[in-house]
Structures are given as structure tokens and as C-alpha cells.
Design a protein that fits this description.
Helix content is about 55%, strand content about 0%. The protein contains 6 helices and no strands. The model has no long low-confidence stretch (mean pLDDT about 85).
């Protein structure tokens, strides 16, 4: 039923499922669920270790940047994560969206001369 509601949009499916889940719980219950899942070693269906590595890198930055925390990316891990994003099609389609664009691994502007 959820995929039909989301009209085959993966991002909408995840968002809507999370919202419905959160609406049925208190903040305390949600925090308890997070704490209880810290040691979980179950991976989402269809994911690889490289997917989980990329998630840790990206979502760690999602948390650190708004808090003003400098979070250095381990170079080897970042390379492995971006390689996975580049190779897999859905949900990123990086090769189609970013192919031909210059890329850098730091915050310096790209010289387009």
C-alpha cells in the first residue's frame, strides 16, 4: 500500500513512512527506539557495506554542518562511498546527472578555464 501512496517515488515513500511512524509515537518513544537500535547489525534489504559507509559519511555531515562541527572525511572511505554512488543507478543516478561535470574533494572552487 505504501508504494502506491508514494506513487513509486522512493523519497516520498521513505518520508511518508517516517512521518506516519513518528505521528504514532511520543518524542520519548522515538528516542527509546533510536537508543534500542544503536547496536543493531541488521542492514536494509538490498544494501551493501559500501551503501552503509556512504550513509554514515553523508548523514554524519548532515548532522555536523548545521551544528558548526568540523568533520573531516577519511579519504579512503570517501573514495569508496563516492565510487558506490557513481556505480549504482537508483536512487542516485549520479553518472547521468553529474557526468561531464568537474569534481573536487574539497571546498575550493573548481577552475573552469
Amino acid at each position: 500500500m505504501n508504494p502506491i501512496r508514494a506513487r513509486d517515488d522512493l523519497h516520498r515513500l521513505i518520508h511518508d513512512t517516517a512521518v506516519r511512524h513518528a505521528q504514532r509515537r511520543t518524542t520519548g518513544q522515538l528516542l527509546a527506539e533510536l537508543r534500542d537500535s544503536v547496536d543493531a547489525r541488521v542492514a536494509a534489504l538490498g544494501t551493501t557495506p559500501a551503501d552503509r559507509l556512504m550513509d554514515v559519511l553523508v548523514h554524519g555531515q548532515d548532522i555536523a554542518l548545521p551544528l558548526g562541527i568540523e568533520r573531516t572525511m577519511p579519504v579512503a572511505a570517501a573514495r569508496a562511498g563516492i565510487q558506490r554512488v557513481w556505480e549504482v543507478g537508483a536512487p542516485f543516478h549520479a553518472r547521468e546527472k553529474l557526468g561531464g561535470l568537474p569534481a573536487r574533494g574539497d571546498r575550493r572552487p573548481v577552475d573552469r578555464r
